[in-house]
Amino acid sequence: NTVYVPKDVYINRTVEVTKVVYVNQTIREPYAVYINRTIMEPCQEKIVYINQTVDVPVEVYINRTVEVPTLVYVNNTVYVPKDVYINRTVPVPYEVYINNTVYVPKDVYINRTVEVTKVVYVNQTIREPYAVYINRTIMEPCQEKIVYINQTVDVPVEVYINRTVEVPTLVYVNNTVYVP
């Protein structure tokens, strides 16, 4: 009598198995960078020191010519009458010589004091201006100016990260079935 005896046999079949794999994915990740930007700095008045030239009078001595009267002694010629005796003949009842006194002018020199103007140099004090530098405080005019500052901004950049995904794949498995 023929009977079917089941026996174990192996057959190959294809099944779909889900497994974990790593894939690379591109994402945009922000990171901090520095950029320069131009701003207008707020206007502020500030005190600055400047040098300024001013004329400051100072006492200086200068020489000038003046006429100063002074007493000097000079020799002057004057006529001074002087008594001299001369002999003359006068008619008298008889001729005799007599002495007669007459004034005869004669040049003599005498000393006298006169006032003579002469040029002399004297020192006189005057105020003469000269340039000096002094410091003064002024308020500098207010001006807006452009300055550069650094600012941090977030710039997205492409980076690669690894992530885990489940990918279905076809695999072959051995399965035992009973084949009569």
Topology:
Blueprint: E1 7-41, E2 46-90, E3 96-140, E4 145-179
Antiparallel strand pairs: 1-4, 2-3
Give a written overview of the molecule.
The protein folds into two domains: 1-44 and 142-180, no CATH class; 45-140, no CATH class. With 180 residues, the protein is mostly beta strands. It has strands spanning 7-41, 46-90, 96-140, 145-179. The mean pLDDT is 63. The chain contains no helices and four strands. The strands form two sheets. It has a two-stranded antiparallel sheet with strand order 1-4. Strands 2-3 form a two-stranded antiparallel ribbon.
Q: Any idea what the shape is?
A: rod-shaped
Number of strands: 4
Low-confidence stretches: none
Major β-sheet profile = 2 strands, antiparallel
Could you give the order of the helices and strands?
Answer: EEEE
pLDDT averaged residue by residue = 63
Distance between the termini: 15 Å
How many domains comprise the coordinates? Answer: 2
Radius of gyration: 70 Å
What does the oligomeric state look like here?
single chain
Tally the helices: 0
Helix content: under 10%
Arrangement of strands in the largest sheet:
1-4
Strand residue percentage: over 45%
Broad structural category: mainly beta
InterPro entries: Trimer_LpxA-like_sf (IPR011004)
